[in-house]
Specification:
Layout lengths: L1 E8 L7 E9 L14 H27 L11 E11 L2 E11 L9 E2 L1 H5 L6 H13 L2 H11 L8 H17 L13 H6 L7 E11 L7 E11 L5 E6 L6 H11 L8 E5 L3 H7 L6 E5 L1 H16 L9 H16 L3 H13 L9 H19 L7 H6 L7 H16 L8 H16 L2 H22 L1
Parallel strand pairs: 6-9, 9-10
Antiparallel strand pairs: 1-2, 3-4, 4-5, 6-7, 7-8
Helix pairs in contact: 3-4, 3-5, 3-15, 4-5, 5-15, 9-10, 9-12, 10-11, 11-12, 14-15
């Protein structure tokens, strides 16, 4: 039994043209699971042959229509025949590209290449979308292997090609960001009162992680990620490399706009109190509340308690009292009593001054205690009454952002990865990864396609 796939080209006024794309044989009178329907290899060959036939017909039709001079309608002379290479989801194509001499009625000599002018981009948007999506989720060589497994691209795509294509998509997204501003909470109270009633509050958690550096090995550089969680609507993520991104506030502002967060809507920003994170969230929304993550507070206190329990004799006798004092500090901070907590920390640290020739463990504990005191003092205005917030069901920690750190940073850039990265590479790839996790990357390609079609229609009307 022989099967054949044929392509029928309807040229309008011209007669239909029929081409046989591919044929394959099956055993007569029998049915086997190995020969049931199309195999993957046969399907890939059929798609590649069909793509070649369709694009060839499109290119030849376009070249034929563009040959007459647009001014006098006389056919232009053929200068030569060349080919251009275009990469698609169904293979790399060598398309014929004839070049025509300019007509004598035109003052400017030279030649025109209609196919080159019509295809300035040599990679189809569908292939770019696949490469960008998969490269943000898996390593570049893994992405190349996956594409070769399911698509008839053979050796047309490798890890370097995928990386370059993904970076080009990310750079286009970056170019669309507006200029950076120090303040986005514009307007006055009177203007905000005239706005429609805003939606429910939104909680935005911001945290950081570290990625191995290629340029400054073996150190790491910091990456900031965040998660915007509204009470109604989808969750959105964002990320950037600290110190490399020149528009962090603009990035966060655009995310809030895309999410439909009104200017007068209540927003709660939660972070670990780092200076760069505090600067990022200030002046974003007029009704914003800034809260220090309680998890980072209790984590630091737990470390201090463990150090106190490990004090050597004879100061080890004071370990239970030290642990109890630190537990009191925790309770005072839980209830938002920052002043009393700082007094306890200061009195606790002054007690070490009575020890002559303190051992290294005591000096280390004293140093960590001073760092913790500065941390609380610098973030005192961000410490609310956590107990009251907890009773009302409000968020008190950025635990919900830890999963985002794992999704955005660890799984692609750190965990089980033996790669080092440049800040630029991580920053650009992170823009793709957050959009893929949010499910918004397809909207960007759709928007670009609509803009391209609108531009082409405008050119046709102008002509």
């Amino acid at each position: 039994m022989r099967f054949a796939i044929q392509l029928v080209i309807d040229g309008g006024d011209a007669a239909d043209e029929t081409q046989e794309i591919i044929s394959f044989d099956r055993t007569d009178g029998g049915l086997s699971i190995d020969e049931l329907g199309l195999t993957l290899e046969e399907a890939k060959k059929a798609l590649a042959a069909l793509q070649t036939a369709i694009t060839g017909a499109q290119v030849m039709d376009h070249s034929r229509c563009q040959r007459p001079c647009p001014d006098c309608c006389r056919p232009r002379g053929l200068k030569d025949n060349r080919t251009i290479t275009v990469r698609t989801c169904f293979g790399k194509l060598a398309l014929p590209s004839p070049r025509y001499r300019r007509c004598r009625c035109q003052a400017m000599p030279g030649f025109v290449a209609p196919v080159v002018a019509a295809l300035p981009e040599r990679v189809t948007p569908d292939l770019l979308a696949l490469e960008a999506r998969w490269a943000s989720l898996a390593a570049y060589d893994v992405t190349a292997a996956l594409l070769a497994d399911v698509l008839p691209i053979n050796e047309a795509v490798n890890a370097s090609t995928i990386r370059n294509d993904a970076m080009r998509v990310a750079e286009r997204l970056e170019a669309e960001l507006g200029p950076e501003q120090a303040m986005f909470a514009s307007g006055c109270q009177a203007e905000w009162n005239k706005m429609p009633i805003p939606g429910p509050p939104v909680t935005i958690g911001i945290d950081g992680g570290y990625v191995p550096s290629w340029t400054d090995r073996p150190t790491n550089f910091e990456v900031i990620v965040g998660k915007s969680v509204p009470e109604e609507g989808p969750v959105r993520r964002f990320g950037f490399v600290a110190g490399h991104d020149e528009k962090p506030k603009r990035r966060l502002h655009e995310l809030l706009i895309d999410q439909g967060i009104a200017t007068n809507q209540e927003v709660t920003f939660m972070s670990d109190g780092a200076c760069n994170l505090r600067d990022l969230q200030y002046y974003m929304r007029p009704n914003a509340e800034h809260v220090l993550d309680y998890f980072h507070i209790t984590m630091r206190i737990t470390v201090l308690q463990q150090m106190a329990r490990g004090l050597p004799p004879p100061v080890s006798a004071a370990a239970p009292a030290a642990v109890a004092v630190l537990e009191s500090v925790r309770r005072y901070l839980w209830h938002g009593n920052v002043g009393r907590a700082l007094e306890l920390i200061e009195d606790f640290g002054d007690g070490f001054d009575l020890i002559r020739d303190p051992p290294p463990e005591v000096r280390k504990l004293r140093r960590y205690l001073e760092e913790f005191s500065r941390y609380i003092s610098n973030n005192a205005e961000l410490i609310p009454n956590y107990a009251e917030r907890h009773r009302y069901g409000e968020v008190v920690s950025t635990a919900f952002v830890e999963s985002t750190v794992n999704q955005v940073i660890a799984k692609r850039f750190a965990k089980k990865q033996q790669m080092q990265w440049t800040p630029r590479g991580v920053h650009l790839l992170m823009q793709l990864r957050t959009r893929v996790l949010d499910g918004t990357l397809d909207n960007d390609f759709k928007r670009w396609r609509e803009a391209r079609q609108k531009s082409e229609n405008a050119l046709k009307l102008a002509a």
